[in-house]
Amino acid sequence: MDGEMDDDDSYDFWLLDLDGTLVDVEWSYTRDVFDRVGDRVGREFTDREADIIWSGLTGSRDRQLEEWGIDPQTFWDAFHEEEDPLVRAEQTYLHEDAEFVTDLDVPVGLVTHCQQFLCEPVLDHLDIHDWFDARLCCTEQTGWKPDPEPVQSVIDDLGVGDNGHQGVLAGDGANDIGAAWNAGLDAIHVERVGHDRRGRCVLGDYRVQSFDDLF
After folding, report:
1. What are the TM regions of this chain, as residue ranges (predicted)?
2. What is the pLDDT of residues 188-213, one digit of tens each?
3. Closest Cα partner for 104 from 19, 183, 191, 22?
4. pLDDT in tens, 24-57
5. What are the boundaries of each domain within the chain?
6. Bridge partners of 93?
7. I need a labelling partner for 49 at 20 to 30 A (CA). Which of 70, 107, 146, 162 fits?
8. Rounded to whole angstroms, how far apart are CA atoms 75 and 57?
9. How far is CA 201 from CA 55, 189, 198, 208, 210, in A?
10. Which homologous superfamily does the CATH classification assign to the domain defined by 13-25+92-214?
């Protein structure tokens, strides 16, 4: 559904994605990283291609890379070598509507594909560590959204996995929505980039352009 929550749509806990949901990175940083990764893998990336991979516009980034004839492991090894955690943190900004998290009076968890060596400096730089009662940076070991396992792990860490607790997961991508539904949660899709740029419409229990639209 579109639009705001009803008064009776109260949740016992919230889970949130990070990149593209609560925060974003200046385009100049993204463009520079893809230029340097392109040098490493021997392939130039257009602005559109960089946007697709950075924002996960087509769902699975690995599948998209494979469609372009790029080995995902080779790409990600180069990508993480070229990312500077401190520079990325400095180039990351918080969406104004994300401040709603500070008003939540229930447990809040973070489930992100952003790697820990990058995530922690971002949380420090933006001073939002204390927004989250539990957090998980997905890895091959934890699984990746839309796999429900990383979501369930954070639910367990929050101590809200039993007794009929009702939760919601908010994110900007189809993988976030899939992870929510696969874990038995409601899902909020925050469309930061627009349907035209994404090239598709992502469904969700709630579909908004800003968290302000929910309340």
Report:
1. none
2. 999 887 666 766 678 899 999 999 99
3. 22
4. 999 999 999 999 999 999 999 999 999 999 988 8
5. 13-25+92-214, 27-88
6. 24
7. 146
8. 17
9. 14, 10, 8, 12, 16
10. HAD superfamily/HAD-like (3.40.50.1000)
